[in-house]
Amino acid sequence: MLRTKPCVEMTFQQADGVPGSGRRALRAWSARQPCCSRSAISQVTDGRFMCTGCGTWYSASHSGSVLGCARSVRPVGIDVQVDCHRPAAMRAVAKICGLDHGTITHWTIVEAMLKATGQVGGVPEPGSYLLPEIVPGCGTVHLPGTGAVSVVTGVWAMTRVAIAVLEATAEQSWRPSCAEVG
Ligand SMILES: [Zn+2]
């Protein structure tokens, strides 16, 4: 079970990736387990998904045959990635995270943070998402101008998962906040 603070609900399923599958999965989830009595998912201008009934934030990600969804009262981003050999992408991730070597876990964290902050498709500046070389299961990253982002990482069906949630209060650096996630 993955847990974050503030609370995030998440669901995973095996699914083929076709355009719009994330959005459809979010709508199916909100119909099956509504966040409120007027549950309706819409996409806001920065690409993030939100329930117009109660303001709950939603996010979806697909990789390989895994589709992950997350929702929270705070802006949330989820990223799933199957392990793959992409040296150029790992070098780019390393620069963003201020590291010698990037990993798939770093990549999922960066993608989840881009989604949580409404910057999908953006390319962060080198050193803008400073992460430790070894990423523990949970931690907090401070983004200048944005504040603190809680991150939790784990694995579902052999697929890397990262979930990022904007916190209401600011933190100054990465701080491990739990020992084990799985
Ligand atoms: Zn709602």
Account of the protein in words:
The chain is α+β, with helices and mostly antiparallel strands. The chain has one domain. It contains 3 helices and 9 strands. It has a 5-stranded antiparallel sheet, with helices on one face. Helix 2 crosses helix 3. The radius of gyration is 15 Å and the shape is globular. It binds zinc ion (ZN). Zinc ion binds next to loops.
Secondary structure elements and their pairing?
Elements (H helix, E strand, L loop, with lengths): L7 E7 L6 H12 L8 E3 L5 E3 L5 E7 L2 E7 L3 E7 L4 H11 L6 H13 L21 E6 L3 E10 L2 E8 L16
Antiparallel strand pairs: 1-5, 2-3, 3-4, 4-5, 6-9, 7-8, 8-9
Helix pairs in contact: 2-3
The site of zinc ion has 7 residues, from loops.
Provide a brief overview of the structure.
The longest helix has 13 residues, at 104-116. With 182 residues, the chain is an alpha+beta fold.
Query: What structural class results from the helix and strand content?
Result: alpha+beta
Task: Give the cofactors and ligands.
Answer: zinc ion
The main pleated sheet reads as: 5 strands, antiparallel
Order of helices and strands: EHEEEEEHHEEE
Residue stretches low in confidence (pLDDT < 50, at least 5 long) are 170-182
Measured as a percent range, the helix fraction is: 10-25%
CA radius of gyration is 15 Å
Number of extended strands: 9
What percentage of amino acids are in beta strands?
Answer: 25-35%
Q: Give the termini distance in whole angstroms.
A: 6 Å
Overall 3D geometry?
globular
Give the strand order, joined by hyphens, for the main sheet: 1-5-4-3-2
Helices, by number, come to 3
Mean pLDDT: 87
- Whole-number tally of structural domains: 1
